[in-house]
Amino acid sequence: MPTYSYHCESCGKTFNVVQSLAEHIKEKPPCPKCGGKSVAWVPGPVQVITGKKT
Q1: Does residue 24 belong to any structural domain of this protein?
Q2: Into how many domains does the chain fold?
């Protein structure tokens, strides 16, 4: 499962959450520090793994 980073706009804490893609699209998690609902997703690096060998 992917790990997504979020930033709380209320307290400034950045935190990671393990979510499925469906959960990530559906709703944002509350901040674990202050419980705030005003969080923004922080895009991170993308790693693509394929089955082909070059």
Answers
A1: yes
A2: 1
